[in-house]
């Protein structure tokens, strides 16, 4: 019945005013299928009554009552933005120093990839679980706890001398990061009503991921060049230790934060979807492990255990979807996201393609281009990426001011075209070309695509579920992005390896670059498909009061 309740919330919100821009994210009333779901909500459901009130008065630019002052609100939003920053900074900070990490642990390049993959594997597998935990036990306590454990595991990882133990600690660090993001999104999504103020807040939050990646590259480059790669981990331990203390004082308690008494804890434990949790973690872990390990396996994609793990992972994920649809009363993944309208699955498909390009191909091979082809030092590579951070902040500022004016379909089209243009630029890069000719515009375009697309998709996700499911929905969204990164990296690596295998060892820089070109052409093909998919997307403006739907505006 819990699953049915939030289906009713979605449709009844549409029934209040079918032309509210909030609902243009999932199309017009006929697209949502309100007649099908209208009868499924429980009229006595308190959550439904509260959400319906919010939709009646939804377009607000006022400060939420949770915050006693604007300054406290700003500090809180900035602290919550540290959640996505933790994940991307951890990747960027070590990616820039991979060569020295390999020498420190004396491991080959195939094994070395686990310094990054272990973090991504754990975070991607646990997003859904921690999204549900945050909705059940309280987002504030989950957020603060995750910051504390992220700091602790960062500190411990810096002291590890054994590579296997180092990767295990990195995985625990990834789990802590996976807990913080859904909790932070849930706090913001439930606190703000749709409107320009929420647009600015969510755009600020969205800037955390790309800016965090650049902060990671900058801090990692400085630490690796002048100190040690271990220093960047200790730096993160200090930072997020401080952030956890600040969060305790500035992140407000909400209705979602239950008293942590024995009674409430037991009730919360009874509400956990244990079957879905097991299937999600097992399926995503095996799937991502197989993709991450394939290129380093003895026979690469032909290695028997890679094929077996990949098949088993896909089967378990399929079982997870079936299980979540029919079995639990309170599913780990709200299935109404996928069944209420085909617009949400289409939007997630587009974002999956975007992230296959962003972190799975263009950022990864862009870094390799500087370090392997150009032979630049970590500190110089860091300098090359700084303009992207500035562009990321600028783009998010612009998006915050335009989400309620420009239809989401147009913004998403801009995002996909930016990825397509960036991939094509990288595909034509040469060994000696100057930085400003191709690398610079390509790096700017990719962050335009990432930030614009993330904002539109994130808003669509949060408007597709009631307040009590905000963290779970965020877990779904971020799981898709994490899996897409793994798929993009595996696919682009397979293309690059296939091309490099046609040359005799040792490869020249020109031959290595040709293999990179193959990866960039793959990214361009994926981006081209996402551009075509955007033509079928029906996403209107967000937070601008009642107005015509996107279809009517086009007419």
From TrEMBL:
Compartments where located: Membrane
Keywords annotated in UniProt: Membrane, Transmembrane, Transmembrane helix
Major place of residence: membrane
SUPFAM superfamilies recorded: MFS general substrate transporter (SSF103473)
Transmembrane segments: 74-94, 114-134, 141-160, 172-192, 204-227, 233-251, 272-292, 304-323, 344-365, 385-403, 410-428, 434-454, 475-499, 519-539
Bilayer topology: Multi-pass membrane protein
Any one GO MF annotation of this record: transmembrane transporter activity
InterPro entries the record matches: MFS (IPR011701), MFS_dom (IPR020846), MFS_trans_sf (IPR036259)
GO CC field: membrane
Domain Major facilitator superfamily (MFS) profile: 76-542
Domain of life from the UniProt record: Eukaryota
Protein name per Swiss-Prot or TrEMBL: Major facilitator superfamily (MFS) profile domain-containing protein
Organism: Geotrichum candidum
Upper classification of the organism: Eukaryota, Fungi, Dikarya, Ascomycota, Saccharomycotina
């Amino acid at each position: 019945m819990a699953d049915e309740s939030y289906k009713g919330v979605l449709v009844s919100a549409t029934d209040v005013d079918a032309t509210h821009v909030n609902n243009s994210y999932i199309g017009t009333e006929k697209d949502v299928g309100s007649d099908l779901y209208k009868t499924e909500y429980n009229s006595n459901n308190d959550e439904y009554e509260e959400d319906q009130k919010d939709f009646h008065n939804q377009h607000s630019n006022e400060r939420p009552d949770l915050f006693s002052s604007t300054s406290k609100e700003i500090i809180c939003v900035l602290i919550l933005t540290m959640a996505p920053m933790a994940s991307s900074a951890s990747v960027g900070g070590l990616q820039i120093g991979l060569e020295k990490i390999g020498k420190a642990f004396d491991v080959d390049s195939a094994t070395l990839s686990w310094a990054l993959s272990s973090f991504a594997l754990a975070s991607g597998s646990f997003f859904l679980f921690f999204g549900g935990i945050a909705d059940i036990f309280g987002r504030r306590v989950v957020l603060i706890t995750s910051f504390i454990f992220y700091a602790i595991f960062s500190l411990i990882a810096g002291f590890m001398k054994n590579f296997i133990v180092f990767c295990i600690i990195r995985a625990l660090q990834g789990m802590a990061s996976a807990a913080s993001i859904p909790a932070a999104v849930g706090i913001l999504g439930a606190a703000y009503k749709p409107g320009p103020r929420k647009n600015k807040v969510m755009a600020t939050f969205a800037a955390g991921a790309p800016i965090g990646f650049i902060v990671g590259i900058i801090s990692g480059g400085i630490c690796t060049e002048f100190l040690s790669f271990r220093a960047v981990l200790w730096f993160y331990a200090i930072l997020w230790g401080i952030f956890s203390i600040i969060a305790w004082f500035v992140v407000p308690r909400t209705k979602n934060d239950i008293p942590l008494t024995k009674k409430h804890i037991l009730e919360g434990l009874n509400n956990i979807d244990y079957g879905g949790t097991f299937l999600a973690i097992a399926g995503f872990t095996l799937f991502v492990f197989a993709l991450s390990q394939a290129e380093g396996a003895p026979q690469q994609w032909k290695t028997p255990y890679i094929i077996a793990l990949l098949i088993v992972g896909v089967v378990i994920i399929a079982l997870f979807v079936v299980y979540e649809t029919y079995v639990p009363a309170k599913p780990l993944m709200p299935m109404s996201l996928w069944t209420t309208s085909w617009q949400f699955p289409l939007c997630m498909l587009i974002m999956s393609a975007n992230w296959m390009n962003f972190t799975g191909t263009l950022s990864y091979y862009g870094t390799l281009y500087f370090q392997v082809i150009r032979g630049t030092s970590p500190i110089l590579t860091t300098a090359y990426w700084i303009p992207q951070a500035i562009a990321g902040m600028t783009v998010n500022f612009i998006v915050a001011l335009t989400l309620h004016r420009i239809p989401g379909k147009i913004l998403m089209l801009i995002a996909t075209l930016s990825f397509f243009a960036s991939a094509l630029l990288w595909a034509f890069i040469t060994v000696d070309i100057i930085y400003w000719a191709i690398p610079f515009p390509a790096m700017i375009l990719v962050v335009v695509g990432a930030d614009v697309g993330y904002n539109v998709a994130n808003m669509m996700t949060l408007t597709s579920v009631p307040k009590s499911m905000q963290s779970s929905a965020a877990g779904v969204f971020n799981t898709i992005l994490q899996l897409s990164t793994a798929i993009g990296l595996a696919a682009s690596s397979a293309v690059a390896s296939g091309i490099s295998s046609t040359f005799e060892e040792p490869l020249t820089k020109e031959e290595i670059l040709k293999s990179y070109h193959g990866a960039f052409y793959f990214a361009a093909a994926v981006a081209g498909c996402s551009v075509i998919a955007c033509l079928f997307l029906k996403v209107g403006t967000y937070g601008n009061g009642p107005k015509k739907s996107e279809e009517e505006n086009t007419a």
